Amino acid sequence: MPRNRSILLLSVGHACVDVYQGAVASLVPYFVAERAYSYAAVSGIVLAASLLSSVVQPVFGALTDRRAMPWLLPVGTILGGVGIALSGLSGSYALTLVFVAVSGVGVAAYHPESARVARLAGRGSHSAMGWFSLGGNLGFATAPLMVTAVVATGGLRLSPLLVVPALVGSVLCLPVLRAPVRTAGDRSGTAVVTGVDDTVSFVKLSLAVVCRSVVFVGLGTFIALYAQERPGGSEAAGTAALFVLYLGGAVGSVLGGKLADRWGRVAVARWSYLVSVPAVAGIVFVPGPAIYVFVALTSAGLYVPFSLQVTLGQDYLPTRVGTASGVTLGLTVGIGGLAAPLIGRVADATSLRTALTPLILMPVLSWLLFRTLPEPIAPKLTATDTERGTEQETGPDTGLVRDPAHPRRETSGQDPSRSADRPPELL
After folding, report:
1. Among 48, 60, 126, 129, which residue's Cα sits nearest to residue 327?
2. 65 contacts 320 by C-beta, under 8 angstroms
3. d(C-alpha 80, C-alpha 61), whole Å
4. Higher pLDDT, residue 38 or 316
5. Predicted confidence (pLDDT) per residue in 306-323, tens digit
């Protein structure tokens, strides 16, 4: 299957999964209105989805390091949708937590394997990963519109209709998974292991992602309520603020990949976090409609590094790509999400503005951590060597690939029967 088509299908499928991550925060105002939940209670619901998902993701990542599990893409998509669809049917707080937790497990199962598949399908391109991440961001952005369209008209009892994107996404990923695209010479479905792990840099990167997550989860949980509470605010204003927060990420992801191709991932991420500092401050302190401008700037600033952090993690841990994806896409997000209940408690005791003010410091910490990070050398995928002008000599019988820069170094596997211009295989 052509690379562009594969990335497009994966991106749309990514949107159909991440719409459920955004749906949790989008349902918060309705849980408050229909069930009279407190700030602390609704932040607990957001935590149930994000924390369980984040803790489980590295487990799925470690499993996919051992063996390719492409079936996790449709299964994870369905679980993500079913959990959210059921969350509005019961007034029980405990059952609501269970249902959003089920959705979180589905999201956790999807992401590490999808990140592996997307990087192989994109042949290591930062821009391709940016487009893949764009799908997730569009899913986030669509969530408040979808939830409003369904729940605002008939209440939480109509939440089963929210399962539709999951059904669509599970079908869309099937053509990519059936495509004969495998990493060169790898018949088990996992990439050839090369490089040395840089654990110290990976830990620093993970801490930076945690700080980013604190800001994003905190704003995602409370920005709709904060926009409603401001002078002239309304339910529509809250929905608009959440939509802008998620939509700005769509721009940021694509822009991040293009900027990184020119200036490097670490440098681009560092400057993005620096720009995010005044943007978050503007959300908290600047009155009036200008909040939407600052929400958009904050979203772009936080999402420019997003896909870059995924590939950075993979390159810092080249022997454990699935685990790296599970941590950067999951565990660090959940740890950051632990701040949501704390923000809720402070808001209950004081005000939302007071509770959101500490978020201004988080991008500063991410910037400081990125200042100490090196730019890793991205591993070369065998299938892209021909396209990028790197000629390889293949032994006629062994199928071993010789690197021209190191004539005596051989890496396993190119299938001699595979044409040079054929993409790497995913399965």
Report:
1. 60
2. yes
3. 17
4. 316
5. 888 888 988 898 888 778
| Tokens 């769509």 found at | 250
Residue 137 in tokens: 């961001």
The pLDDT assigned to 43 comes to 77
**H helical segments located in 286-391:** 290-303, 306-316, 321-326, 332-337, 339-349, 352-356, 362-370
One-letter amino acid at 235 equals E
Residue 193 has pLDDT above 70, yes or no: no
- The tokens for 236 are 């529509």
Residue type, 402: R
**Closest residue by Cα to residue 368 from 191, 207, 152, 255:** 207
What pLDDT digit, counting tens, does each position of 378-395 carry?
655 544 333 333 333 333
**CA–CA distance, 339 with 48 (Å, rounded to integer):** 12
Model pLDDT for residues 356-375, shown as the tens digit of each residue: 999 999 999 999 999 999 99
Encoded tokens for 318: 């080249």
- Alpha-carbon distance of 294 to 223, in angstroms, equals 12
Burial environment of residue 43 by CB neighbours within 10 A (0 to 12, 13 to 18, 19 or more)? buried
> Whose structure tokens read 């929400």?
295
Tokens 């990184």 belong to 260
**Kind of pairing between the strands at 406-411 and 393-394:** unpaired
Q: Both tokens of residue 54?
A: 């984040």
Is pLDDT above 50 for 330? Answer: yes
